[in-house]
Amino acid sequence: xxxxxVVDNLVKKYGELTAxxxxxxxxxxxxxxxxxxxxxxxxxxxxxVLTTLLKPTSxxxxxxxxxxxxxxxxxxxxxxxxxxxxxxxxxxxAYENMYIHGKIYGVPTDLLQGRIDEMLExxxxxxxxxxxxxxxxxxxxxxxxxxxxxxxxxxxLFLDEPTLGLDPQTRANIWKYIxxxxxxxxxxxxxxxxxxDEAEALCDRIAIIDHGxxxxxxxxxxxxxxxxxxxxxxxxxxxxxxxxxxxxQAEFLKECKHVGRDRVAIKVDNASTSIPxxxxxxxxxxxxxxxxxxxxxxxxxxxxYLTGREIRxxxxxxxxxxxxxxxxxxxxxx
Length: 334
Description:
Elements: E1 3-14, E2 17-28, E3 32-36, H1 43-50, E4 58-63, E5 66-67, H2 72-78, E6 79-82, H3 94-104, H4 109-122, H5 138-149, E7 156-160, H6 168-185, E8 188-193, H7 196-202, E9 205-210, E10 213-218, H8 220-225, E11 230-236, E12 255-258, E13 263-268, H9 271-285, E14 289-295, H10 299-307, H11 318-333
Parallel strand pairs: 3-8, 3-9, 6-7, 7-8
Antiparallel strand pairs: 1-2, 1-4, 4-5, 9-10, 11-13, 11-14, 12-13
Helix pairs in contact: 3-4, 3-5
């Protein structure tokens, strides 16, 4: 499988402020790649470099086979972007927004009408194409931005916090469109987010970034394995255990301890493969399982394990930090 994005030791500084501190990773063709981290971690700066909006201080970035510094115009032709901040003109209709974007990207006039209808249909907005955007809900605007970004059929779609500020139902709908993009159109998707559930639900692989550095990279399962064991909770029928003892002995069990009169907590490497074995052990020892469930490490557990803190929405955003830095620099020059 070839690589849609290749980043090598990328650095971006704003004076003395380092927003991106020498990161290296690659994105495979056709995958959904997640960039997960708190506000201010370096996600938006990275995406701005990869989409040619910012020049890197040092390092190299190849997008769609083109160097972002040497051939920015080539890069722009093969990418679509949905920015974190709204960028739709709300005084225009959905059709007018799509039409202008299509002309800017050089979509032939004889194809443009059909392409607009196709993309609006894809995001469920075709019946609203002649409505003014100022009448749209936040979710409808986001869907229109996704449709607009696809008008020129890009190879790679960059989504910067695509569900930020949306309600749970609208977020779920946006997730559905993102999943369909990969399935139906084969688009490579680079997604930045600080929502753990979003990264886990959508991404094939995830890079966790903090303070401008990538601190972990892998599939969701690989990342969660960093934390350690799954924990299986088993409740037995009262009175089945001898002398109140319910714990098993087996090689695959890393630890078993009582967490109630008829309940035990069992640590294992992999809950999905261990649960059937636990049923077999219970049957052999004459114990009746009344209830069984398990807790697996979450991506938030991974971040907490690696950094010692949780991702919090209340942290200052990266753009705010950069703006504050620039404002302070201007103040010093006066």
